[in-house]
Amino acid sequence: MNKEELKKRTKQFAVSIIKLASKLPDSYLAQHIKKQIIRSATSVAANYRAACLAQSRASYIAKLSIVIEEADETEFWLELIEENNLLPDIKSIKQEAHELASIFIVTRKSLMLKK
């Protein structure tokens, strides 16, 4: 998967999370999760775009690290949604969060091995 495809994929992920968040109930917990998950998911896309513009390899790796953290955080919020029965059937979007984190982890590892 090339950079442009990953840009599209991470943006689509953010859009999907925004749509999912709009379906959360009005409870205090759900509203807290809504704000957090929108922030973390949109950060995945925004920070990946920033990584693509990095001026050095070290900067690219650092920005990828942020992308990984945000994808993992989004997965965490999805787990809380699932465990608290706030929305039905979110397995596919949870899988996407996990896959994105995995893609960026592998990318970062391969870059760190190529010195």
TrEMBL record:
InterPro entries per the UniProt record, alphabetical: 23S_rRNA-intervening_sequence, 23S_rRNA_IVS_sf
Gene3D superfamilies noted in UniProt: 23S rRNA-intervening sequence
Phylogenetic placement of the source organism: Bacteria, Pseudomonadati, Bacteroidota, Bacteroidia, Marinilabiliales
PANTHER family per record: FOUR HELIX BUNDLE PROTEIN (PTHR38471)
Family annotation (Pfam families): 23S_rRNA_IVP
UniProt superkingdom: Bacteria
Organism per entry: Carboxylicivirga linearis
Protein's name in the database: Four helix bundle protein
